[in-house]
Amino acid sequence: MTEREQDERPTARCVLGAMIQHLRKREGLSLRDLAEETRYGHSYIHRVEIGSQLPSDALITALDQRFDMGGTLIEFLEMAHEESVQDYGRKAAAREGQAERIQVFTSSTIPALLQTEEYACALLRTACPKAPRDHFAAAVANRMARKQVFNREERPPYWAITDEAALKRPVGGKVTMSEQLAHILKVAEDPDVTVQVLPFERGEYWMLGGSLTLLTAPNGSTLAYVESFGSGELVESPKRVVELSQRFDMVRGLALPECDSLKLIRKYLEEYQ
Length: 273
Description:
Distance between the termini: 42 Å
CATH architecture of the largest domain: 2-Layer Sandwich
Number of helices: 12
Pfam families: DUF5753, HTH_31
Protein name: Helix-turn-helix transcriptional regulator
Oligomer: single chain
Largest sheet: 6 strands, mixed
Radius of gyration: 22 Å
Helix content: 40-55%
Strand order of the largest sheet: 3-2-1-4-5-6
CATH topology of the largest domain: Endonuclease, Chain A
């Protein structure tokens, strides 16, 4: 499916909004009537109905109960959230391939461009554990294809910071993690690649549980992509990008120097072997 076709097809957000509007009109309720019943603003509900805004968990629960939908609206909201993350991720990946510099921080998994095929497959399987392995083939292939950015004639500097938790968690088992960490050490030999680890001893910090990607475009502008707990956001506002860049710098200051980071990765590699 082309990007244009993806943009033109009805989104889960729009379908959810249309369902809510249909249910409201079926019972002869105006926007103000429904707003009074649920105690949410009528303009807010209107934005939800036209698909310009996703409803909150609290609103969708109230609507699901009001129209006796048995959890159907809640399920559609979950689908809309997942679709939103995939859409933002697709756009970020497209910008990634053209970036002049890539900076990434992850707090619980190995950064995507450093992942091996087995590691990526193990991660993706968590979304549907009982599905056959080939169900994830396309998604894994797409993630692996993103590594082509390193094959460009003028490849971008790549700076990756990851929490020690990503090294400790045995995603896919010991063999997969052994191959994954060995792969990181190999990639880190490239002078254009910098890998740092934020150790447990640093305690709490901003972005714990989330991830941040900063992509610098050929014209010098920077785009940020933020992910956390099943949600994703593409940030282009200069003010917010500056704020997120400062956050990245703070995390980088907490991380171990690269030489010590690689020693820690080797330590975990030995444990998995």
